[in-house]
Amino acid sequence: MPRDNMASLIQRVARQARLTFRSPAGPAFGENLHRLQQLLNEVRAEDLHLAPRGPSAAAAAAGGGPPWAGVVPPVSYMHICETESFSMGVFLLRSGACIPLHDHPGMNGMLKVLYGTLRIACMDTLPATAAAAAPPPAAAGSGPCLRALFRSRQHYTPASPPCLLSPHTDNLHQIDAVDGPAAFLDILAPPYDPQHGRDCHYYRLLEGPLAGAEPPALPREVWLVETPQAADFWCGGEPYPGPRVCL
């Protein structure tokens, strides 16, 4: 059963997000961010009137691939609220879906799994230096290359604390739904805005895919190449069914 305070909980998350990201360079930012993290960690799927749904991993395997492929979006987004300082919503991933490796220029972010299991690979961009090694031959003829630090690749469930990113730490990440559909509550601060230099860029790891076998020991330096948005990835929209948020 949903908890009695579910409406006040997501409302308090939104209000704390507004307070936290209104002054990200202020002296109280760290304390406010910690409080927001604590509140976000309390949110459960039922608080937002959500429940696991969609094809199971077994059904996907039986069909030789995701049964939603080419029919419905692999990922959907439920908008909750947005201000100049932050946006908040829910991403729903079908079984086997992946949000490709992408960046969040100059942005902070928080991600809390509501149901399912996500595998999240996180990376930092590295400054270009004259002493840096040249990109590998596989980069020839590709898009712009970027040197990055592959920091971590971890599984997140509803029992996990929020995954955090900052403008300089874990700012690039790839998100895969593992063993079935998954959903997560997402806060980005400030929101994407191409007119102000906050457009989303996609990347590919030159040393091989991020999914599958575990990579070599982390952290380690890697080369990324900027790519267009993958043809098999797009994000649809769905109405948000949870408690209303007023700001």
From TrEMBL:
Organism: Tachuris rubrigastra
Taxonomy, superkingdom: Eukaryota
Record-level GO cellular component terms: mitochondrion
Protein's recorded name: AEDO dioxygenase
Signal peptide (residue range): none
Keywords: Dioxygenase, Iron, Metal-binding, Oxidoreductase
Database matches in Pfam families: PCO_ADO (PF07847)
Gene name as annotated: Ado
GO MF assignments: metal ion binding; oxidoreductase activity, acting on single donors with incorporation of molecular oxygen, incorporation of two atoms of oxygen
The organism's taxonomic lineage, starting at the top: Eukaryota, Metazoa, Chordata, Craniata, Vertebrata
